[in-house]
Amino acid sequence: MAHFLFLTIISFFLYSHYSNAQPSPGYYPSSQVAPLSFNQGFRTLWGPQHQSVQQGTLTVWLDRSSGSGFKSLKRFQSGLFSTAMKLQPGYTAGVITSFYLSNNEDFPGYHDEIDIEFLGTTPGKPYVLQTNIYVRGSGDGRLIGREMKFQLWFDPTKGFHNYAIFWSPSQIIFFVDDIPIRRYPRKSDATFPLRPMWAYGSIWDASSWATEDGKYKANYNYQPFVGQYRNFKIAGCTSGGPCRLPKVSLSGSSNLSPQQVAAMGWAQRNHLVYDYCRDSRRDHRLTPEC
């Protein structure tokens, strides 16, 4: 019996470490936050004629005349920001569907940003999810990106999935269905966003760079291009006021558990397709955290 139990444990260990099956993170931060309706947390920023809210789902669309965007009612110093998104299948090259934090309106040309962006695609190819961080642009309109890109373990056009940004004074963590896919620690004040930001979402034409570095452009024969959002969640600290950040692990702290770290390792081993720190074409003097 002991021998059988030992073999069972070893088999489970090998499966959990080497299988491509989606692992359990062991903890689900988004479940700790109550959902908001769109109007409770956000307002239309641009393209109001390209937005609609029905039964709790916000639909935005891009056509030849305009895209659309929305913005949180408050700005935040830190927090957990989450939404469920569903993307359009088919030809969507050049089209960005996003959920992000930014203070570009407050500091144009010198802003901070934390991005979750779906880069449009062509039929037969998977969507790429780009996570990115900007820290106080260069001041001359030139921004230094910190991109990590993933091809996810599911088809994001088949249903809604949750995407979240956790931003604390010490780190940024990106989650997909509560699985951490990327952690960006604060190594220095110069490489970490510290100023308050708003939460945004948008759909827009980024043909010059979005799909395979701009190889494929938006084709308006396929318009409208549609993105859907629901299950908005914000548990943030507004600037100037005390608050408690939601915990991201069972320990009750902002640190990931060993099980979450293992799940993040799985996501990066199997689904990471680009890491700016590993790009030999980049000038890493501009990204000293690498």
Span of the ends, CA to CA: 50 Å
How many domains make up the coordinates? Answer: 1
> What would CATH call the architecture?
Sandwich
**Class computed from helices, strands and strand pairing:** mainly beta
Query: What is the β-strand count?
Result: 14
Order of SSEs: HHEEEEEEEEEEEEEHE
Mean pLDDT comes to 90
Task: Itemize the secondary structure elements and their pairings.
Elements: H1 2-18, H2 38-41, E1 42-46, E2 51-54, E3 57-62, E4 68-87, E5 95-102, E6 113-119, E7 128-134, E8 148-150, E9 161-167, E10 171-176, E11 179-185, E12 197-205, E13 225-238, H3 258-271, E14 272-275
Antiparallel strand pairs: 1-4, 2-3, 3-13, 4-9, 4-12, 4-13, 5-6, 5-12, 6-7, 7-8, 8-14, 9-10, 10-11
Description of the molecule:
By secondary structure, this protein is mainly beta. It has one domain: Jelly Rolls, CATH 2.60.120. 12% of the residues lie in helices and 37% in strands. The protein is built from three helices and 14 strands. Strands 1, 2, 3, 4, 5, 6, 7, 8, 9, 10, 11, 12, 13 and 14 form a 14-stranded antiparallel beta sheet that branches. β6 and β7 form a beta hairpin. The longest helix is centred in the first third of the chain and has 17 residues, at 2-18. It is globular, with a radius of gyration of 19 Å.
